[in-house]
Amino acid sequence: MSAARPTKTVAVLDYGFGNVRSAERALARVGADVEITRDYDKAMDADGLLVPGVGAFSACMQGLKSVRGDWIIGRRLSGGRPVMGICVGMQILFERGIEHGVETEGLDEWPGTVGPLRAPVVPHMGWNTVEAPADSRAFAGLDADARFYFVHSYAAHDWSLEVTNPAIRAPKVTWATHGERFVAAVENGALWATQFHPEKSGDAGAQLLTNWIETL
User: Fold this and answer.
1) By the 8 A CB rule, do 56 and 16 touch?
2) What contacts 14, CB < 8 A, 6 or more positions away?
3) Marked catalytic residue, from 24, 109, 187, 199
4) 103 tagged catalytic
5) 87 included as an active-site residue
6) Given 60, 87, 124, 178, which residue is catalytic?
7) Tens-place pLDDT, residues 141-198
8) In whole angstroms, what is the distance from residue 195 CA to residue 183 CA?
9) Measured distance CA(88)–CA(85) in Å, rounded
């Protein structure tokens, strides 16, 4: 009889701009040992770090820096330690965000700008399907018509990161459409992110979080 796999620990970064309790419950549901924290060492030591985000890009960046979240994310990724961003927690991973004409520097993990979503109805609020790569690990076990819950008025409209070194695995980018096509999720080595809220996406979101936990 094989030994049981150890429970994976996940730190949910509490910097004042995320649905931390919803994230905690969703992660616990899929078997993770979860702690909501803004403590540097606890966030660094966990198997996985989840970075939620709700509100304005600029306010989220200020809140993140107030708890040294920018350092935590950068240090974890430099060591290949898993990080997952959700909603604005994904948007701040890009180079910059523009809201109401105000430009704010992001974490610059990926090139590109997050800007207003050009659609007849904004915010994009509700359930939507996504276009995931066939070999996506994040969406493994999910049907093509699986639906996820979105709440946002801004998005990354383009993906410009090019990988020319054949030894480096190219990121997998998932798209969705609401008025226009936008980046819905990214798998980039140790860094995963979703524009939608997996913690509010029922069984489909639980499967995605399970897939992430299995990479830790």
Assistant:
1) no
2) 20, 36, 37, 38, 67
3) 199
4) no
5) yes
6) 87
7) 999 999 999 999 999 999 998 877 877 889 999 999 999 999 999 999 999 999 999 9
8) 7
9) 8
Is the sign of the CA dihedral 195, 166, 48, 65 positive or negative? negative
9-213 under CATH 3.40.50.1000, yes or no: no
Q: Using one digit for the tens of pLDDT, what is the confidence trace for 12-68?
A: 999 999 889 999 999 999 999 999 999 999 999 999 999 999 999 999 999 999 999
The two tokens of residue 127 are 């359930």
Active-site hit among 124, 152, 178, 197: 197
197 is catalytic: yes
- CB count within 10 Å of CB 180 equals 11
Three state DSSP letters for the chain = CCCCCCCCEEEEECCCCCCHHHHHHHHHHCCCEEEEECCHHHHHHCCEEEECCCCCHHHHHHHHHHCCHHHHHHHHHHCCCCEEEECHHHHCCEEEEEECCEEEECCCCEEEEEEECCCCCCCEEEEEECECCCCCCCCCCCCCCCEEEEEECEEECCCCCCCCCCCCCCCEEEEEEECEEEEEEEEECCEEEECCEHHHCHHHHHHHHHHHHCCC
Sign of torsion over alpha carbons 64, 178, 173, 214: positive
Q: Any idea where the domains of the chain sit in the sequence?
A: 9-213
